[in-house]
Amino acid sequence: MDVVCSNCRAQFKIPDEKIPKGKVVLVPCPKCKEKFAVDTREKNGAPAPNGKAANGKAPAPPAAQAAPARKSLADEVSAGQYDAADKPFDYIDEGTLTALVCDSDSGIKARVRAALESLSYRVTEASTAREALKQMRFHVFDLVVLNEMFDTDQAENNHVLKYLGRLAISTRRQMFVALLSAEQRTMDNMAAFTKSVNIIVNMKNIDEVGNVLGAGVADNKSFYRPFNETLKKLGRL
After folding, report:
1. 101, 210: one domain
2. What is the span of the domain harbouring residue 165?
3. Most CB atoms closer than 10 Å: which of 30, 121, 166, 219?
4. Do 199 and 139 sit in the same domain of this protein?
5. Is 72 contained in some domain?
6. In terms of domains, do 31 and 101 share one?
């Protein structure tokens, strides 16, 4: 065993069989003649001075480094290269209202599109979460209609909903988000608050989606009107 005198710092070897295991013993230093303690007790597998653990076994190899955290779909899309083909619109006149419909059911998309066009929205559709996130990367939509189960088998893993929750509040406030749900009740404000959306539309009421969205958007504009007018006066809007 390699040991070091605690008094004069001299280094020397002591045969392992000369020192009892699992104890603290006093050893005389051959140089300064002072006695110092040598601890051979096991200390959570820590290596002894001879490079072995106190139990005489080689120390365990270090644990493998944790695998890097998996990027979210939003992070992957944000880190991707620019592709003009992902832009939802080539040119939009000032004041044009825009909407994004995120639903995998072509029948539902057709009903929602018709309702939004009747409300004077220029509509684009997404069939996958990746497609929706790419389009939102290039444009802040006035209205987003999102199926709770869009491109996922678990509502809590909805990538688009997660992306919307990460937006800066100044950007998120510009968007009205409607969640299509088979579970939550239409216009359930508490459920909408829990889901971080503006309004809930139950799938049973899909034929009334135009009226529900029209009323919801109007209420939202009325609620934020004093706030937005103040921002305009301050030159921040």
Report:
1. yes
2. 88-233
3. 121
4. yes
5. no
6. no
Strands 97-102 and 121-126: parallel
- Secondary structure (H, E, C), 50-61: CCCECCCCCCCC
98, 124 contact by CB (below 8 A): yes
For residue 3, give the nearest of 62, 58, 45, 18 by alpha carbon: 18
- Asked whether 32 and 7 are in contact (CB, 8 A), the reply is yes
Number of domains composing the chain: 2
- Sorted by sequence, the CB contacts under 8 Å of residue 5 that are 6+ apart come out as 11, 12, 29, 31, 32, 34, 36
Would 130 be classed as within a structural domain? yes
**Of 12, 16, 212, whose CA–CA distance to 116 is shortest?**
212
Within-domain flag for 56: no
Q: In what order do the strands lie in the sheet with 176-181?
A: 121-126, 97-102, 143-147, 176-181, 199-202
pLDDT in tens, the chain (237 residues): 787 887 777 777 777 777 777 777 787 887 777 887 888 776 554 444 444 444 455 555 555 555 555 667 777 777 666 666 677 777 778 889 999 999 999 999 999 999 999 999 999 999 999 999 999 988 999 999 999 999 999 999 999 999 999 999 989 999 999 999 999 999 999 999 999 999 999 999 999 999 999 999 999 989 878 877 787 778 765
